Amino acid sequence: QIKTPADAVPGRLCLAVGDLPNGFVADASGLAFLPATALFGGGVAAQRRLERVHALFERSIQTLAQLKAGDPVVHRVHGIGRYVGLQRISFTRPEGPADGTGASFRHVTFEQDFVKLEYRDGALLFVPATGLDVLSSYTPASHDHEVVLDRLGGQTWQIRRGKVRDRLLAMADTMLRQHARRALATRPGIGVPGPMYRAFSDRFPYDETPDQAAAIHAILDDLAGESPMDRLVCGDVGFGKTEVAMRAAMATVEAGRQVAILCPTTVLAYQHLHTFQKRFQGFPVRVGMMSRFNSSAENAVVMEALADRKLDIVVGTTALLGPRVKFAELGLLVIDEEHRFGVKQKDRIKRFRSEVDVLAMSATPIPRTLQLALSGLRTISLITTPPRDRLAVRTSVARYTESRIRDAIVQELERGGQTFFVHNAIDTLPSITDQLRGWVPEARFAMAHGQMDEGKLERVLVDFVERRFDVLVCTSIVESGVHMPTVNTMVVNRADTFGLAQLYQLRGRVGRAAVRGSCLLLVPEVTTAESRRRLRALTEHTEIGAGFQIAAADLEIRGGGNLLGTSQSGAIDEVGFDAWLELLQEAVHEIQGVLDLERIDPEIEVPVPAFIPDDLITDPVERLGWYRRLSSASTVANVDAVVEELEGRLGGLPEPLQNLAGLNAVRASCVEWSVVRVRWLKVRVILEVHPNGRLDAARAAELVARHPKRFEAKVEAGELRELSVRFTPTEGETPLRYLRWIFGQVAKAGEAVSGKRAR
I need a labelling partner for 204 at 20 to 30 A (CA). Which of 177, 194, 280, 338 fits? Predict the structure, then answer.
């Protein structure tokens, strides 16, 4: 151990106490400095990594900041167009006196940035950079869906949008009816878990992640309630969903009820059986399985034990849903990967939903935005933070050579693990397997693909799980639904032919225990520029969760479709995921009877230069990202937070950027108070108001009473139409500051009126 870095000696390993977030090499001294966290993980860096991963999972599907010229986008009113780029437009506006006499005209010139969109037949639309929340990336559910541009001013978009909305209304109605049936059904709650549950929790060898802890807490609350639980737990493989399910199972068993674990395949059932048996070892809990791997006599014994309450937890496939299976007292049904079941099985599952507690688990991530849209119809817990001890998968690209492949397999053999070798061509799979046997004769090889007989395929996979083989040569069937923590090396042949999301999911199959996984991507000498870009993205982003960011669009949209049924995939293709999500939220609100105020998209006519200077942020993509951030800020406080972030990064902000932020703050206030248009004139500003908005005649009367020389209200048939506010020449020099003052007065008037009504 040394006291200072100056005491370090080249050629020796030295230890110094200090704070070093990142390592570096000091060439002149011949010394390399490494922080302990780089060697052993953990500490503050690990916590920051978890926080950063959480932020990645909360990002929207595909932000406008990722747009390139030529990408399709969706305008809320005009439909699908093509993004051309950012364009700065100069305006010259005459200003006259408020009385309209035309005397004392002066001209004001100012510049503002717009997003330029192209529609069918070359029609152009310019969207103000302060109103980008009307735009969203066009992200279809199908990779091969052909993009067709809408006609600007045409009816095709509104017709398509209406059809999608009708379908969503029908779906939301079905979900609400199911939700209502469950709300009316009652069963005794299980109360506070007892000592056996506490001992079971204490025996968990790891710290729960924040999301795990939140999901467990929510499930215990559900189980304690009087209505049956129907909760979906979503999260990537290896993020700890099974532990959440086992906590629910233990709480149910301790309350004297039985638990059924329903799996789509025999292999998954077999894996869950072993996981549950190991975790519940030492507790008075009996775990069994019903599957095709059992003989008829063995399955009969299991059914008899269930009926006689001699079995507490049963794991199985759809055989558990059969009419011959009787439970003494079924309390909890855990469904793994529900979207993989057929229609008939789903119908059988539905009858359980109004009788027993149901906990569904999905390894396909879904966006938080979809979780919020379904609020009140389906309770969802998202597990988006990886376990603290999970290490990033080491990813590399190489040519298909004997030495490289042999090294990868032998290294895994030497550390006692297993290997997936993915070759996505069934016709050449046997010859590839024979070649690999010749290259690595000491390894035991098995072969698997999706066209094999189902029983034979399951037997091969189970044999591999039980470690009768070292290497599984297979197609991409291992992409999802297989949990094999002993497999820590993945070799993907012809990785250049796979999509980015598919490669990410394949890579996620390895390195899921506390062992660092290894992923070797094999490519030919000549590859396309697009495939090189995909592979570079995968090798550069190896942090846990970073792959999710890379493949977020594909995975989340697939997750949304899986959650709500394949019928929604076509609807997502019609309008794009973001617009579909918006329509879903409207449909849910309508079904629930929540009155949605007509969406306000205010016009703000204030003659100030408002843009991000090119020399301040030179990258146009990054500039577009900041425009999106500002225009998406839904409150003044959110706008201020983005400004604070910009100031922290850039220092003092130039006037055009300050004005841009000010316009976005005014826009947020307009939406809050239902102001549809702001017109800045020579001595007054006119606020045109939505007739059913929050800024009503009573609040306007309060404003006029407080400031009779400034405020003037135009009321027709008892409804406020317009609010006119005078300003002095000095106040007119800072219009955005004055508008902020006006909305502050509106808020105070609102509080005063609400107080009077309460009295």
Answer: 338
Q: Is the sign of the CA dihedral 357, 363, 367, 368 positive or negative?
A: positive
Check whether 366 has a pLDDT greater than 70. Answer: no
pLDDT at 50 over 70: no
Q: How far apart are CA 268 and CA 194, in angstroms?
A: 30
Mean of pLDDT values over 83-103: 69
Pairing of strands 31-33, 24-26: antiparallel
Cβ atoms of 576 and 147 closer than 8 Å: no
Ranked by mean pLDDT, the top range of 19-28, 237-246, 256-265, 496-505 is: 256-265
Average pLDDT over residues 178-200: 82
Which among 757, 671, 746 has a CA at the least distance from the CA of 702?
Answer: 746
Round to whole Å and give the CA distance between 302 and 287. Answer: 10
Tokens 């059969």 correspond to what residue? 322
Angle between helices 529-540 and 500-507 (to 10 degrees): 30
**What is the rounded distance in angstroms from the CA atom of residue 534 to the CA atom of residue 636?**
39
One-letter amino acid of 479? E
The enclosing H or E element of 355 equals none
| Domains of the chain, CATH where assigned | 5-57 (no CATH), 191-383 (3.40.50.300), 394-543 (3.40.50.300), 603-758 (3.90.1150.50)
Return d(Cα 754, Cα 759) in angstroms, integer: 9
Closest CA to 699 of 676, 717, 723, 726: 723
Task: Find the distance separating the first CA and the last CA of the chain, reported in whole Å.
Answer: 73
Q: What is the C-alpha to C-alpha distance for residues 193 and 200, in angstroms, rounded to an integer?
A: 11
Q: What is the DSSP code string of 470-539?
A: SEEEE-GGGGSS---TTEEEEEETTGGGS-HHHHHHHHTTSS-SSS--EEEEE--S---HHHHHHHHHHH
Lowest mean pLDDT across 121-130, 316-325, 460-469:
316-325
**Which pTM does this prediction carry?**
0.61
- Please give the Cα distance from 550 to 500 (Å, whole number): 8
Per DSSP, what are the bridge partners of residue 719? 716
